[in-house]
């Protein structure tokens, strides 16, 4: 018996078993969700709504401030919400905020219209 395989299997075998079990669990979960999601009787099924840029996570997290005229100015952008919130955690300026900004959307949507 090798010293690398004292129990008759190696770490790659364990990884393979876990990966296959995970795939089987996902398939079982999908089947269960389909079973629960089937409408009783002849109720029509709604078509899935198209995925938007915001729900897909295609964009940036912006730290921005709003001036006295209500116009927004982006100060910094971050890839993740956590990075943006960390940069913003010691903020004491009430005109400074963090928001998700999808790609292709004008910064003007952050303006204060009030």
What does this structure look like?
This protein has 114 residues and is of the alpha+beta class. It has a three-stranded antiparallel beta sheet with strand order 2-1-3, with helices on one face. The model has no long low-confidence stretch (mean pLDDT 79).
SSE diagram, text form:
Blueprint lengths: L10 H27 L15 H4 L2 E8 L5 E7 L2 H8 L7 E7 L12
Antiparallel strand pairs: 1-2, 1-3
Envelope shape: elongated
Computed Rg: 25 Å
Report the total helices.
3
Question: How many strands, which pairing sense, and closed or not: the largest β-sheet?
Answer: 3 strands, antiparallel
Count of individual beta strands: 3
Estimate the strand proportion. 15-25%
Q: Residue ranges: pLDDT <50 for 5 or more in a row?
A: none
Oligomer category: single chain
**Overall average pLDDT:** 79
Report the end-to-end length measured between terminal Cα atoms: 76 Å
Order of strands, main sheet, comes to 2-1-3
Which structural class best describes the helix and strand composition?
Answer: alpha+beta
Q: Encode the helix/strand succession as letters.
A: HHEEHE
Helix content: 25-40%
């Amino acid at each position: 018996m090798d010293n690398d395989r004292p129990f008759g299997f190696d770490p790659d075998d364990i990884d393979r078993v876990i990966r296959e079990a995970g795939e089987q669990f996902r398939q079982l979960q999908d089947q269960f969700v389909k079973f629960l999601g089937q409408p009783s009787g002849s109720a029509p099924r709604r078509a899935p709504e198209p995925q938007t840029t915001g729900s897909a996570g295609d964009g940036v997290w912006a730290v921005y401030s709003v001036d006295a005229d209500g116009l927004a100015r982006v100060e910094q952008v971050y890839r993740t919400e956590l990075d943006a919130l960390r940069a913003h955690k010691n903020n004491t300026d009430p005109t400074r905020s963090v928001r998700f900004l999808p790609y292709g959307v004008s910064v003007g949507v952050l303006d204060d219209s009030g």
